[in-house]
Automatic annotation (TrEMBL):
Enzyme class of the recorded protein, top EC level: oxidoreductase
Record PROSITE patterns: FE2OG_OXY
PANTHER family to which the protein is assigned, alphabetical: 2-OXOGLUTARATE (2OG) AND FE(II)-DEPENDENT OXYGENASE SUPERFAMILY PROTEIN-RELATED
Metabolic or biological pathway, per its Swiss-Prot or TrEMBL entry: Alkene biosynthesis; ethylene biosynthesis via 2-oxoglutarate
Record protein name field: 2-oxoglutarate-dependent ethylene/succinate-forming enzyme
Recorded catalytic activity of this chain's protein: 2-oxoglutarate + O2 + 2 H(+) = ethene + 3 CO2 + H2O; L-arginine + 2-oxoglutarate + O2 = guanidine + L-glutamate 5-semialdehyde + succinate + CO2
Swiss-Prot/TrEMBL keywords: Ethylene biosynthesis, Iron, Metal-binding, Oxidoreductase
Family: Belongs to the iron/ascorbate-dependent oxidoreductase family.
Organism: Ramlibacter terrae
InterPro entries from the UniProt entry: DIOX_N (IPR026992), IPNS-like_FE2OG_OXY (IPR044861), IPNS-like_sf (IPR027443), Iron_ascorbate_oxido_reductase (IPR050231), Oxoglu/Fe-dep_dioxygenase_dom (IPR005123)
Length: 327
């Protein structure tokens, strides 16, 4: 029987427990979540609630700025994943279907690595734009310190989750450590405004897509018009929002690395009901974890024939970033 709903998993036994406790978390994660639905919700992650709250508050203040001020930190180019993207400038569904209609009803602010590695590595041709400098809003100087702290904390949690994944895939616990120690992750905070006018036909808050990288760590709000995932039966099911918990999901890169033993699940953010009012404004903190640009992504399952040619993390991501922007 496939799991058809998103499970909630306490990972604290992995973080604090014995080798046996670790295996227990791992077994439940892999069996119940990564193979079937690709979306565990996790509790016991150890991230300070105060840091989450400060990140939410400063983000809300940013999105409350007048449009011209937000545009001062506009995303500079489609292949540079930094800065501000306005409502209607992106269509996530286009990452899968170039003809997809309808741009997304959210705006976002994005940063990349806050502790770039040595310049020779960061500026090598294969690094592309993955270490492009961050663009900080001068109108909200306190944002930089908060986002920097949150980005670092997410990097640490992702490293821990990658250790759980390593054991779950039958690899040594620290197998991924040297493949994510110069990770090219992105923090993207999305604001979904309350909808004063009815959306265009087919237009939703975030079009159906799967994420691109190794894993995503999402802090979402419980508001009308939320996140849904497409389960193994092809039905859209709501993701439970538990206070203080993170929603984790596998991205395309991890599915490919696992030779498709794990699923990178289609998900979307739907519109609130008409007339839901100001209360339907929704904000989510989305951390997309991506391995080092030069990490080789090749079949991790030695007993199985490889379904894909090897690639690198950097090339896999670059090719996906440019597809969704309304250039
Ligand atoms: O806001 C959400 O709940 C999900 C956003 C999302 O799927 C994404 O940014 O990739
Ligand atoms: Fe997503």
């Amino acid at each position: 029987m496939k799991l058809l709903n998103v499970p909630v998993i306490d990972i604290s036994p992995f973080r604090k427990g014995t080798a046996q406790d670790k295996q227990e978390v791992v077994a439940r994660l892999v069996d119940q979540a990564c193979r079937d639905i690709g979306f565990p919700v996790i509790s016991g992650h150890g991230v300070a609630p105060d840091l989450i709250e400060r990140t939410r508050a400063v983000s809300r203040a940013f999105f409350d700025l007048p449009a011209q001020r937000k545009l001062k930190v506009a995303r500079p180019a489609v292949d540079v994943t930094r800065g501000y993207t306005g409502v209607n400038e992106e269509s996530l569904a286009r990452s899968r279907d170039p003809e997809a209609y309808g741009s997304d009803l959210n705006e976002s602010l994005m940063i990349g690595p806050v502790d770039p590695p040595d310049p020779a590595y960061a500026n090598a041709p294969a690094a592309g734009k993955h270490f492009a400098p961050n663009i900080w809003p001068e109108d909200l100087p306190e944002l930089q310190a908060v986002y920097t702290a949150y980005y670092r904390e997410m990097g640490k949690l992702a490293e821990e989750l990658m250790r759980i994944f390593a054991l779950a895939l039958g690899l040594p616990e620290h197998y991924f450590d040297d493949k994510v120690d110069r990770h090219i992750s992105r923090l993207r905070v999305r604001n979904y405004p309350a909808q004063k006018e009815a959306p265009q036909p087919g237009q939703i808050r975030a079009g159906a897509h799967s994420d691109y990288g190794s894993l995503t760590i999402l802090y979402a709000e419980d508001k009308p018009g939320g996140l849904q995932v497409c389960n193994a039966n092809g039905d859209w099911v709501d993701v439970p929002i538990r206070p203080g918990c993170y929603i984790v999901n596998i991205g395309d890169l991890m599915a490919r690395w696992s030779n498709d033993n794990w699923v990178s699940t289609l998900h979307r953010v739907v519109n609130p009901p008409a007339g839901a009012g100001a209360e339907s404004r929704r904000q989510s903190l989305v951390f997309f974890h991506n391995p080092n640009y030069d990490a080789e992504i090749a079949n991790l399952m030695p007993s199985q024939a490889a379904k894909y040619a090897p690639t690198t993390s950097g090339e896999h991501l670059r090719s996906l970033y440019v597809k969704t922007q309304n250039a």
